[in-house]
Design a protein that fits this description.
Number of domains: 1
CATH topology: Rossmann fold
Number of strands: 8
Structural class: alpha/beta
Number of helices: 9
Radius of gyration: 16 Å
């Protein structure tokens, strides 16, 4: 694995495993490329693809301040512009606000071959984020990493945000939607609404007792990997 800095500001881990296709992984708020669960994600999917995992601005080793999906799609564009000449196909897997950013980027840039969206909010202002629920705070505590938590730098400025629901219809590539029916952070209706407003080839998968974003990977690892792999390789 090699860490790459784009324009000395945005950091990503590049796992060059010898494949002709790359899977870009976009973490959500408060998660980084070097957090344990995203290292596990990279290694798990590294059996099938080259991998790139980004630190969005205000997270981990990237500079700047996190804008909660207002500007992070520009970070993703830098990464994809960098790797595009090296690969035959580029796939994108986003989690939570990383999924919202992935959706927005794909709608604006049209440079992705397939897209997987996990626990995606259809609109930032409608995120429920019921952090007092056991389903929300217990996974957060279990994933506690002091170094990661200390690296987070949110912006306090009220940036205008693109609503994923307003741009989903601009996407013309296959999309796999994944959500947990017991997600306390971004309720599953967000995913269902995005799915209903998408006009391209698509699939919707509910994890019946699933929680939020990367917790679906950790709680249903084998099933999650197989689902994503099949969508990217065989669909």
């Amino acid at each position: 694995m090699k860490e790459v800095f784009l324009e000395r500001r945005i950091s990503f881990n590049h796992y060059q495993n010898g494949y002709e296709n790359i899977l870009i992984i976009a973490p959500g708020w408060f998660m980084t490329k070097d957090s344990k669960i995203f290292l596990d994600l990279a290694n798990s999917f590294g059996e099938f693809f080259d991998i790139g995992v980004i630190d969005f601005r205000g997270h981990g080793r990237s500079k700047g301040f996190f804008t909660f999906s207002a500007k992070e799609y520009l970070d993703l564009k830098k990464l994809i512009d960098f790797v595009k000449p090296q690969y035959k196909k580029i796939y994108l897997l986003g989690f939570s606000l990383g999924a919202a950013t992935s959706l927005i980027h794909t709608a604006l840039e049209h440079n992705i071959d397939k897209l997987i969206l996990v626990s995606t909010p259809c609109c930032f202002s409608k995120i429920e984020n019921q952090i007092w629920q056991k389903n929300a705070w217990l996974p957060t505590v279990k994933k506690f990493e002091l170094k990661r938590w200390c690296s987070i730098r949110p912006s306090l400025l009220p940036y205008k945000k693109i609503k994923p629901i307003d741009v989903i219809s601009l996407i013309n590539i296959p999309i796999l939607f994944i959500t947990g029916e017991k997600d306390p952070i971004v309720f599953s209706w967000h995913t269902k609404k995005l799915f209903d407003n998408d006009q391209c080839k698509k699939s919707l998968n509910f994890f019946q007792n699933g929680k939020h974003a990367e917790d679906l990977f950790s709680d249903y690892k084998t099933e999650f990997i197989q689902l994503c792999k099949n969508w990217l390789i065989t669909q």
